[in-house]
Amino acid sequence: MRQGWRWFGPDAPVTLDDVRQTGATNIVSALHHVPIGRAWTESEVRERQALIETTPPGRSKLTWSVIESIPIPDAVKRTGGKAKAEIEAWIASLEAVAACGINIICYNFMPVVDWTRTELDFVTPTGATAMRFDHERFAAFDLFVLRRPGAENGYSDEDRARAKTVFEAMPEAEMAEITRIITSALPGSTTEPMTVPGFREKLAAYDGIDAKRLRRHLIEFLEAVTPAAQARGVKLTLHPDDPPRPLFGLPRIASTADDYAALFDAVPSEANGMCFCTGSLGVRADNDLPAIARRFAARIHFAHLRATRREGDGRSFHESAHLDGDVDMVAVLKELVTEDRRRSPENTIVFRSDHGHRMLDDLAKTVTPGYPAIGRLRGLAELRGILHALDARPD
């Protein structure tokens, strides 16, 4: 397995030399400055690739191995194969990446909002901070700030009463912060920042789109792009929904093993693969992560390894330390290592430690939410330790 590291570009707080010190060898990145929907050019990709892979004297070599992500425009999610111009631009980006020898592309198909949290610095018992999704705070925002039409139908009487209590007791500044977090697009997001009125408009555009229709749109997208990917040896890896359940009345279609099975059955191309994110899938207690890894082993080309801790109501959760949450990381890695050993060196699984705690010196620094250096380094060290114990030294 190849050790990856998410890097947000030359302006990120974590530098490439910092990455080298973690022991990671494979960079996971994207052209984050390119507007969603515009095709990447080969020259743009090569320029970024040169920045990553031109190794200063005496430094360790880094390789740009994974694109995370080429955003899928909203029009594709709403209209599927009818969004021909947007799909053609996406294929052009794929071709630019493939021409540079990068053969793993991560993407997601979450409508309107990407990964969603309500807190960025939830204080853990160690004093480190973590990201958190609080269901009651989320409901308070949905019902009393966003005031989404029909939102009350998605919550029980008890949920609505509790959300009202939470909203009325919450200082205005705190609710403003939750609103900012939810609407502003978190790091690496493939959706755009929104105002509350803009948020309502986006949601209204999805009126009548249920899970069946959204899945059909994803299948139409895959039917259009997988021939280009397969012809160029590119693996497309669909990231799970985060959290893996409907939000704001919107369907989510990459939350369970059955969701992925339906997509692989519909588009059996070997280019149609999976980003195995243990944190996202692990939020659901009914997701058996080692079993999912075993079932779809041949489809897994990229893995996000992190853990979450489900809280009392089963709907709230926070990011735990990598070995301390609800994820049996040893069992997961056993499955991934078993698959990895079947593969040629150039096709081994790229994994990265995901969403580390903000800790030690990073508590006093400006960090990218979810992606501080020290917390991710701790996670990578723990994952590397498991791999060594399994006698599977990572590359």
Automatic annotation (TrEMBL):
Pathway: Carbohydrate metabolism; pentose and glucuronate interconversion. It catalyses: D-mannonate = 2-dehydro-3-deoxy-D-gluconate + H2O. Gene3D superfamilies: Divalent-metal-dependent TIM barrel enzymes (3.20.20.150). Keywords: Iron, Lyase, Manganese. It is an enzyme of class 4 (lyase). InterPro entries: Man_deHydtase, Xyl_isomerase-like_sf. Its cofactor is Fe(2+); Mn(2+). GO terms for biological process: D-glucuronate catabolic process. Its EC number is 4.2.1.8. Belongs to the mannonate dehydratase family. HAMAP family: UxuA (MF_00106). PANTHER family: MANNONATE DEHYDRATASE. This is Mannonate dehydratase. It comes from Pararhizobium polonicum. The lineage of its organism: Bacteria, Pseudomonadati, Pseudomonadota, Alphaproteobacteria, Hyphomicrobiales.
